[in-house]
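Ligand-bound model needed. NAP.
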Amino acid sequence: MAKSGSHVVVVGGTKGIGRAVADALGEKAVVWSRERGVDATDSESVRVAAERLLVQQGAPWGLVHCVGDFYEAPLLSTEPLEFGKLIASNLTSALLVTQAIVPSMLAAKCGRVVLFAAAGAGKHRAMSRAPAYFAIKAALVHLARSLAAECAPSSVTVNVVSPGLVVHEHSHEASQRRILPRVPMGRLGTTAELAGVVRWLLSEQSGYMTGEDITVDGGLQL
Ligand SMILES: NC(=O)c1ccc[n+]([C@@H]2O[C@H](COP(=O)([O-])OP(=O)(O)OC[C@H]3O[C@@H](n4cnc5c(N)ncnc54)[C@H](OP(=O)(O)O)[C@@H]3O)[C@@H](O)[C@H]2O)c1
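Prediction:
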């Protein structure tokens, strides 16, 4: 197996926020997405991609997971099938990629993991706009904290970024338009603003921070 490198796996790096992260990283980015032949909800697909990566390039410095479908519906009319798909997209995929990659970081005794939740998910209150989605993102925040505790002795940090309303070509325009009047900054966030936070979390300078959930929402949760 090759030694640890400076490359960063960006899961979901072909669209939206993930693409901005991959663009900012340039040639250091190793992009995984279904379009690139990796389905992060499928354990075999992730296993094959991770094995290839670890043999060819060694342990990555960073893992950024930007996958996470959105779903708006009251809880009582949320279809079980949709609920299962949401769990797979937001939660199972995060667990599969961390299980496939993070052990190599622990062995290298360095690394950064960045997961994506959503602004407000970590708060103890009702999230009526998209309750199933926010409940699953809350589980992701909790999962990240436990992972951070498991990884801290090896100097691998695990943090969560929780965006508010971020505009890009696939963002949920109608839903964002309804919420926008409540954003104190009066505008949507950009993918570059999220990528900037991720870049800092991936840097050497962030090394003493782990298990945190960083909200980037123009003040929406204030
Ligand atoms: N945009 C916002 O306003 C906002 C707000 C709050 C939270 N978030 C969270 O921030 C993260 C990024 O959001 P985004 O809006 O940038 O997402 P997005 O535009 O939907 O992009 C998702 C990325 O993940 C990939 N992907 C989806 N399913 C996948 C799978 N099964 N396996 C591998 N790759 C998969 C997609 O590429 P392929 O289709 O090629 O697979 C794409 O590159 C998500 O976790 C989202 O829940 C976003």
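The radius of gyration is 17 Å.
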